[in-house]
Structure prediction request, 269 residues.
Amino acid sequence: MRINSPKLNIMYKACMKASKSLIRDFGEIENLQVSSKGPGDFVSSADKRTEKIIIDELLKAYPDYGVLSEETGKINEKNENNRWIVDPIDGTSNFLNGIPQFAISIGYEEDKEIKTGIIYDPIKNELFFAETGSGAFLNNSRIRVSKKKNLKQSLIGTGGPKSNSKLKDEIYLEFLKVSKSIDIPLRKFGSASLDLASVACGRFDGFWQRELSYWDIAAGIILVKEAGGFTDFLDNDVNETKKRNLVASNSLIHKELLDLIKKKNIEKN
Ligand code: IPD
Ligand code: CA
Ligand code: CA
Prediction:
């Protein structure tokens, strides 16, 4: 593993330690699914357990760094210059249903900019990581975005809308609009961090989704950038923790995808 920066090293350790307990918990899901109680409560405690392991490891190394995490919220709030952004299980519904498509996602932000990211899929044992200026990697190999040049032939991922979204109709119309412009049907795999990792390693040519939370995408953003892709926020939502609308792509189809999503009306064809 080409991890030679102190930050990445700490993130890697935290990730590996947490993933051991996460894999054990995932093994329990199958039994719980057929029990009358179901896996709901168990999953929410697995989420908290995983997050605690990660945060404890990160803060052991850098006690005064800030943390923004999905379950705990903010720690050391005053430190806005050095911050960990943590999602302990990204893809909870998949996890809950015994579907092996979820990840641990940890981003490191310095002076409000994501510098380092790690996304670990513990079931496939795929570790994606990137650091500003050092490229993006999957396990031992350098990864790069795809070379697809036109949107029509691209494989595009998306997600949502959330059950409580006020924009459901608009989001469904957007799916329709993009679907009509591409040959291969849209993919919705249910883990935004892994969707971004897929853009970074060229499995997806592009991805967009509305109303994401910062912890879903922090690590993925640096991964896509370091793999040679582009990321953009739609609208002026850069400072929102939740409800961030993100477009990510291999760069070559970026303008076409962005213009299409921004276009208001669905053309009849
Ligand atoms: C969710 C996943 C999913 C996305 C949702 C997120 P969670 O995160 O990233 O792909 O569509 O918007 O909330 O809840 O599983 O951590
Ligand atoms: Ca998430
Ligand atoms: Ca989560």
Observations:
- The helical segments are 6-33, 40-61, 92-96, 168-181, 192-200, 214-226, 254-262.
- The mean pLDDT is 93.
- Residues 6-143 form a domain with the Fructose-1,6-Bisphosphatase; Chain A, domain 1 fold (CATH 3.30.540.10).
- The CA atoms of residues 172 and 248 lie 19 Å apart.
